[in-house]
Amino acid sequence: MINLEKNDNVFTLTMDDGENRWNTTFVREISKILDEVEASTGAAALVTQSSSPKFFSNGLDLDWVNAPAEHPAAGDYRVFGGEFMALMGRVITLPIPTVCAINGHAFGAGFMFALCHDVRLMREDRGFICANEMQIGLTIPNPELALFRHKLPANTFFETVQLAKRWGGPQALQAGIVQQTTDIDNLAASAFQRAQELAPLGANRANYGGQKERLFGENAILNNSHGAAYHLKHASEQGH
């Protein structure tokens, strides 16, 4: 379902479950992999990819959502929401650089997972990323809205969450959702190369992870009621 390899100082997490749809079992398997990654020491980075030629992650396991008793292997539906959101919070603050290689469709929860990475590369010729909740009649929870608002430019944010716009690779690059596009043959290698470049930043886990917490965690500087001028003028009061 989820595989982990390490080459030099780069971990590669590969989702290997068809469309890689999200249920409680899928969440817990990824969490176990992250336990192993975080137990490492020294310079490191993480690449996340999919083995599917068509899908990065196609969102929620809707068959399970609609009839959880018929899919017991997918896990306890009652705890899914909390565990999934907690996992996304863990990924966005992982104390090493994270690179996501989006090789195909990334919808709903799959799009969220991709956005939680520090850097995103996307296949340029096919595949869409989309927050499709509005299309299928679901309400986007506040934590998901907060993630999109922190990670996306304002106009891109509105088109994504309110209009359920589908973004292909070139459009996602132009909109600021991904940082690079490439052909499928070079996607994995490009993601690995970027991870190698960033891995030294992960040597100081406390500093790298700590700044992510200040960006995205409690009392995040991005949400602070005071503007940049206030912080600059009162830097000494803040220990700087």
Automatic annotation (TrEMBL):
Q: Which SUPFAM superfamilies match?
A: ClpP/crotonase
UniProt keyword annotations, A-Z = Isomerase
Asked if the Swiss-Prot or TrEMBL record annotates the protein with the keyword Cell inner membrane, the reply is no
GO MF terms, alphabetically ordered? delta(3)-delta(2)-enoyl-CoA isomerase activity
InterPro entries, sorted:
ClpP/crotonase-like_dom_sf, Enoyl-CoA_hydra/iso
- Biological process annotations from GO: fatty acid beta-oxidation
Coiled-coil region: none
In Swiss-Prot or TrEMBL terms, this protein is called Putative enoyl-CoA hydratase/isomerase family protein
